[in-house]
Amino acid sequence: MQTEMIPALVALAVATLFTPGPNNALLAASGANFGWRRTLPHLLGVAVGFPVMLLCVGLAMGGLFQASALFRESLRFGGAAILLWLAWKIASSGGIGSKSTGAHPFTFAQAAGFQWINPKAWTMAIAATSQFIVETAPVITAAVTAGTFLTLGLVSASTWTLAGQAMTRWLTTERRLRGFNLAMAGLIVASTVQMVLG
Questions:
Q1: What's the CA dihedral at 25, 77, 128, 147 to 10 degrees?
Q2: Which residues of 132-142 are buried (b: 16+ CB within 10 A; e: fewer)?
Q3: What is the largest CA-CA distance in the chain?
Q4: Alpha-carbon gap, residue 87 to 189, rounded angstroms
Q5: Distance separating alpha carbons of residues 160 and 104, to the nearest angstrom
Q6: Cβ of 48: how many Cβ atoms within 10 Å?
Q7: How do residues 80-92 score in pLDDT, each as one tens digit?
């Protein structure tokens, strides 16, 4: 990868990692409902899981994803269905932090595994690999691309989680917490619809 491509890679990573989407909405909701410390495994699962996925896509699976319409569409609609289910869980009575729901934050493995069915993650992975992984040096360019997303992903995931946690000072009533959870669920639904129709 030529050094002049690094600013473009960083710009893509910032634009995709910091904008609202399923991961960020889930992290904000978890931060608000469970706090930063309990959300840390979820945060790390997102921040590490996506670059690992990106590395795998860049080195092996990108061709399959691009070649097989059935694989691509199954993943897109299956992922959308799971995202809508997660949105419903967040929006459902009491919010995800309610004791009545038996809710708990994502584990590291759950958050890392979620990347593989997240349509936004697939879109980001294909966009990044098609632009920045060079055939003459696939391992090095894939590692640089994944490393960039790992570094900025840690910052993004932490920012969204801390923003959610900071809201807890305001989310002191069940009504406000429920409203916040509904807003995060709405964000997930909106981003899912945009990805499916886009």
A1: 50
A2: bbeeeeeeebb
A3: 57
A4: 7
A5: 18
A6: 19
A7: 777 677 778 767 7
